[in-house]
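Tip: read the tokens left to right.
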């Protein structure tokens, strides 16, 4: 397939028990992500540890994301203090998992899913979105506005091959507009 997907063809909804068969047939070409969806996602969802949202085109499961809340972690300066002391005790909406079906990758589905996650962050009044990006996907997340929280992870591959990143959804222009145009 070539081109981008029409976002209006995607339907998002929370995972349910009736999604078992769809989840068993899902593959994103990452064993860990596939196994999580097939074996853990529904349990974690109903036990309220995390929330998994599935997305479909028609009846076809084309992806999912799992969200939870975490404390934000930031890089430390030479004194051992986080670069921005006001952030070290803040919560974030953490993207614990995001995966697109192997046959539907590179069609813009992940970008549509991230826009939905950003909308959800606004709805629940969460300023920061965090994630552990696969090392090979870090530039894709950066293109979408995410920043590395720990610069060394971004620059060289580590043993886990993950890069901790965050997105600040705060828009100071909205506040400026509010005070300028009461």
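Filled-in amino acids:
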């Amino acid at each position: 397939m070539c081109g981008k997907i029409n976002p209006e063809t995607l339907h998002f909804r929370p995972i349910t028990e009736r999604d078992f068969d769809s989840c068993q047939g899902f593959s994103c070409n990452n064993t860990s992500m596939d196994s999580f969806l097939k074996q853990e996602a529904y349990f974690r969802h109903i036990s309220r540890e995390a929330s998994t949202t599935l997305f479909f085109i028609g009846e076809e499961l084309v992806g999912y994301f799992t969200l939870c809340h975490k404390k934000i972690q930031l890089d430390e300066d030479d004194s051992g203090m986080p670069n921005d002391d006001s952030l070290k005790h803040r919560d974030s909406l953490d993207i614990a998992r995001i995966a697109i079906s192997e046959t539907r990758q590179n069609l813009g589905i992940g970008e549509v899913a991230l826009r939905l996650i950003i909308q959800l962050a606004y709805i629940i009044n969460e300023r920061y979105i965090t994630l552990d990006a696969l090392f090979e996907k870090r530039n894709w997340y950066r293109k979408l506005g995410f920043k590395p929280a720990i610069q060394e992870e971004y620059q060289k591959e580590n043993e886990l091959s993950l890069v901790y990143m965050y997105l600040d959804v705060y828009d100071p222009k909205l506040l400026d507009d509010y005070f300028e145009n009461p």
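The helical segments are 20-24, 31-46, 109-123, 138-143, 151-155, 172-180. The first strand starts at residue 10 and ends at 14.
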